[in-house]
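To: structure desk
From: M.T.
Subject: fold request, one chain
Message: Could you run this one when you get a chance? Sequence is below, nothing fancy, just the single chain.
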Amino acid sequence: MSIYVDSLREGFSLLASGGLDVWNIVLTSLRVSVTAVLISLVLGIPAGYMLGSRRSFGRHAGLVLANAGMGLPPVVVGLAVAMTLSRRGPLGEFGLLYSRPAMVIAQVIISIPLIAAVTAAAVSSVPRELRMQARSLGASHLQEAVLTVREARMGLVAAVAAGFGAIISEVGAVMMVGGNLQGETRVMTTAIVQYSRMGRYGAALALGVVLLSMIIVVNIALTGMQTSGERWERG
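Reply: Done. Structure tokens follow.
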């Protein structure tokens, strides 16, 4: 047990002294992951709405792709993005490999299927009769969509939580396309891997505590939004 006690003591000492450059690492993690989540929400929620509300020919295939994408291996995403952005790749001329935009691209690809699949499940749980009634009252397609999304809002909060949790804790893809460059693309997960390989368990454990704390705080906030919506409905 001494390894844990010693590592915790060393880790918190490093955090207090600023020896880990922890705030730069945390800010880089947040910039990359929050940007990726916002882009994924803009793309994933409309896609999930279409999959959950429409009864079109391609709906089943779309749901299969979204659900399969929830288990998409991050290292495969990282490999595909790295090949695409490499010098010999189709987008190599832009020089994006080993940069924050490359990390955002990889995280967006990982999180979109999650957000779309959870959104589709939430939207499909909204009674179809509600949408039919809105149409009969003269609601436009946009008004119908807003009404449906409002009714499925608690499920959408779960979609945000799923997307953010998947990418803030992901390591394989961001290391492959970001390169773990100090001060540029080093995020909490890649720093934890590096410090563990170096045997600096105190530093790795300290960043692990920060990462877990961040995930818990975000999920407390999102859960609060869900429960407040339930209280509002009961009231």
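Reply (cont.): The chain has one domain: 2-234. Let me know if you need anything else for the meeting.
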